[in-house]
Amino acid sequence: MSWGFLRDLLSGVNKYSTGIGRIWVAIVFMFRLLVYVAAAENIWKYEHDEFECNIKQPGCENVCFDHFFPVSHIRLWALQLIIVSTPSLLVVFHVAYRENREKHNQKPYRNPGKIDGGLLCTYLISLILKTGFEIVFLVLFYKLYNGFKIPRLVKCDIRPCPNTVDCYISKPTEKMIFLYFLLATSCLCIILNLSELSYLIFKHSTKCYLKKYMKKQQ
Predict the structure, then answer these.
(1) Which family, according to the similarity comment (predicted)?
(2) pLDDT for 52-100, tens place per residue?
(3) Can you list the domains of the chain with their CATH numbers?
């Protein structure tokens, strides 16, 4: 899978981001996307082939694998990265609209390179959406896999298995390390989004208060 479109998408937003937003972009690329492409994707590449049960009953192994792994970890992470980055499109479209308006001199902005006015609202909405999507995916992970863990051994008694069989997951320790790492970076991104959201709201509120105070003084 090519992830170049994420790079192009987020680089456009980076121009208008605060310092906290630039840290978020760096974490998405360095600690999530690169780790996913370089290491995690290979670890889960043959997860179905390496899932073994101590019985050769036809269909039993496949049914047990589908029960314990209803959605592949690696595909869910890929979907998470795409969905979490999608709200940045709102900012990209707004920036494109602003630049097009500047180009045709239709009510030019006072500070075209800064986050203010309608762009500020769009940016705040994108932060809220990104935070919401991150939380939704963390809850989804927890619900689908009954917690944030990868056991070495699972017991399965689903038909067509004739009785309770033992099934073994390959490289559970290695998978746990990457699972915790990606969960930690997801939580860090949530903290950064909330911090940037609080910072922008506080900054805008202070600016509006100072304007009102100066008008009263005049």
Answers:
(1) Belongs to the connexin family.
(2) 888 777 888 888 888 888 888 888 888 888 888 888 888 777 777 766 6
(3) 19-217 (1.20.1440.80)
